[in-house]
Write a structure and sequence with these properties.
344 residues; 15 strands; binds NADP nicotinamide-adenine-dinucleotide phosphate
């Protein structure tokens, strides 16, 4: 049982539309002791994703993070001490824990804690081979149901989910157009991820560029942001076109919520389909996706792009990057390496 302090980030105030460092408070507490049914874990990496804004914006009565409570999220951790059946000291796990050095976890959460193999780096297990990559994999393959030669358009294409989904669509033989904010992201998508075309939504008119790049229309639109980009894509769907609803970052934390898509009736005329995707629903199939994606990474077909901020103290600033668009690839915070004595 380690002794010392546990550095923690608490939720200080709800964001009210905009998130920055003033929403969080830094405290130092004793390291917790695991109760029966809990494991003490040393946290190694935090996944910072836009969805967390929903949890900290919602009132506690609606399931939101309590004010003054430790910030919760997806983390990669190592078990130090266990009173939780199925978890042993030294095990590497991804799952629900706190923005803190040490957490006492019960293995529950939105998605239950999963052990991962020591030959997978924790950052990869949390990001491209974690929930982020699972959303991309099952979103493209199960919800999008791609056929080689089709035209695939994706928003937030250089983000965590987007960068993986875009490359999986390429691997399936689709023509892939990515929408992203800024030249650096667009350059990465063209040069590194091998996309067929890009639209920089900060400097170009999205609708006009979609007309130029997709003259026959769009077969699959993979949406991470919602808002006006979704409307532009809806009117350009081809016969039997599909919209994969993965996320709606442009809407998160907005009160009141902006109106929904204006152009959804375009689906009627083309026998289109707009379908939500929840990575969690595919939990029993995560191992299948991890195996396929590891093979693509090994063969060089899939590049795992990560945006790494070092230091627990920088977690709030890293979280805000999701909403300024600063992140290229999966936004992660590195807290620590596994303790030497427990390294796999
Ligand atoms: N359904 C599921 O199971 C599941 C699982 C994981 C994640 N998600 C969702 O997938 C989406 C992507 O998640 P991620 O972790 O990979 O995040 P991400 O795409 O890496 O980061 C967010 C990106 O969204 C764009 N953005 C931010 N604010 C925006 C705004 N107001 N309007 C338009 N674009 C904005 C920015 O990219 P640009 O600079 O390129 O615009 C930013 O970099 C999120 O909506 C998340 O909630 C869903």
């Amino acid at each position: 049982m380690p002794t010392g302090i546990n550095r923690q980030w608490l939720l200080a105030k709800r964001p009210g539309g905009k998130v920055d460092e003033t929403n969080f408070r830094w405290v130092e507490s004793p390291i917790p002791s695991p109760a029966n049914g809990q494991a003490l874990v040393r946290n190694l990496w935090i996944s910072l994703h836009p969805t967390a804004l929903l949890a900290i914006s919602a009132d506690e009565s609606q399931g939101g993070t309590p004010l003054g409570g430790v910030m919760q999220g997806d983390l990669a951790s190592q078990v130090i001490e266990s009173r939780l059946p199925g978890f042993e000291p030294g095990d590497l796990v991804v799952g629900f824990a706190g923005w803190e050095d040490y957490s006492a976890i019960d293995g529950q959460g939105f998605i239950p804690a999963r052990k991962f193999s020591p030959d997978i780096p924790p950052n990869l297990a949390l990001g491209t081979l974690g929930v982020t990559g699972m959303a991309a994999y099952f979103g493209v393959l199960e919800v999008g149901r791609p056929r080689a030669g089709e035209t695939f358009v994706i928003s937030a294409a250089a983000g965590g989910v987007g960068s993986v989904a875009a490359q999986i669509a390429k691997i399936q033989g689709l023509r892939v157009i990515g929408i992203a904010g800024g030249k650096e992201k667009c350059d990465w998508l063209l040069r590194e991820a091998g996309l067929d075309g890009v639209i920089d939504h900060r400097s170009e008119e999205v609708g006009k560029r979609l007309d130029e790049l997709c003259p026959q229309g769009i077969d699959i639109f993979f949406d991470n942001v919602g808002g006006s980009v979704l409307d532009e894509a809806l009117t350009r769907l081809r016969q039997n076109g599909r919209v994969v609803l993965c996320g709606g970052t442009s809407r998160y934390g907005k009160d009141p919520q902006p109106p929904g898509p204006k152009n959804y009736l375009a689906l009627v005329m083309i026998n289109g389909r707009m379908e939500g995707l929840l990575a969690k629903d595919y939990l029993p199939r995560f191992p299948e996706a991890v195996a396929a994606m590891r093979a693509w990474i090994r063969s060089g077909q899939l590049k795992s792009k990560e945006d790494i901020v070092v230091g627990l103290e920088n977690a709030p600033a890293a979280f805000a990057r999701n909403f300024t668009g600063a992140n290229i690839g999966k936004q992660l915070v590195k807290i620590a390496d596994p303790p030497l004595s427990l390294r796999p």
